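Lab notebook, bench 4. The sequencing result for the construct came back, and we need a structural model before the next group meeting so we can plan mutations. Quick request posted to the team channel:

Model the 3D structure of this chain.
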Amino acid sequence: MNLRGTEFQPKNRFEKIDLTVDEYCSVEDSNDSPRTEFYWDDTQSIVTQNKSPDIPFRYSLNPYRGCEHGCAYCYARTSHEYLGWNAGLDFESKILVKSNAASLFRDWLVRPAWSGQEHVMLSGVTDPYQPIERKLRVTRSLLEVCVEARQAVSIITKNALVTRDLDLLCQLASCRAASVTLSITSLDKSLARVLEPRCTVPEGKLKAIEQLKEAGIPVHVNIAPIIPGVNDFEIPTILEAAANAGATSASWILVRLPGSVEPVFTDWLERHLPNKKTMVLNRIRELRGGKLHDPRFGTRMRGEGFFSDEWSQLFRVLRRKLHLTESPAPLNTAEFRRPRTGDGQLFLF
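Done. Here's the predicted structure in token form:
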């Protein structure tokens, strides 16, 4: 599988040395995309605490750094620059794996400071069900810890692979301690193929909603991101299809282009939608106060102005018509029980 979200490799903002290849110098004889490389991430901490007023969860953990799905618009691309790599091709072809995630998570839940009275999000930055998860099962190992501790957990993903873990999710859902958010950007298979090339196709996502619904697991659908001039006209059809499949709530997020995500996304527009490039970027600027990125809390997720107000109103009308709520129902955290420690003994107070 050689299709990538981008072949572009923007300069790392933290690096002083940059490699430039001109037309007379070939690094590789093949034009094929590089094979994905996986690296051991020997992290010593696993749960991140978030303080952003724009995000409806405080605790999250990410099994992987980098994401093979290859979405050109992904705001998380800049995180790879802290690793010495770039936010373009490196982000989707060099993946760090937190193989010891389950052990670290169990140790974190055992701490006296953790009461279990809040849910934890999987994952919030990069997708916990990207293709390599099928083999490595790191996310599944985290869910096994959640089942053991009855720790309330919510999942956000673009991949139907989440249905592989229905057995674990059902155990959590039996005490209202699990929910899943599926991100749907488009129902157009040809657009989805280039917008999120290694992700589940639209029909697969709708099928996943059906399976989750049948298993009794609440499903939230997030149209994320909305890209003006690219997929905004699909809002009604996505919401209707999601509701028919069994989703119970829905929301949206405007495309975000922080730092080096901007040139990656601009390059994507030039390659796939050159006739729309100027219009799309101008619309984003209109939503962002004349800029392509606005990091301010309160506006960074939705933008502001005519188009933002129009989409918000459209969502209100369609949610009411389709019997969808704006947010998932709160999870039950009352069933939490402290898990076993690494030596198999219960934590002693």
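The beta strands are 37-40, 47-49, 59-61, 64-65, 94-97, 120-122, 153-157, 178-183, 219-226, 249-254.
Will bring this to the meeting.
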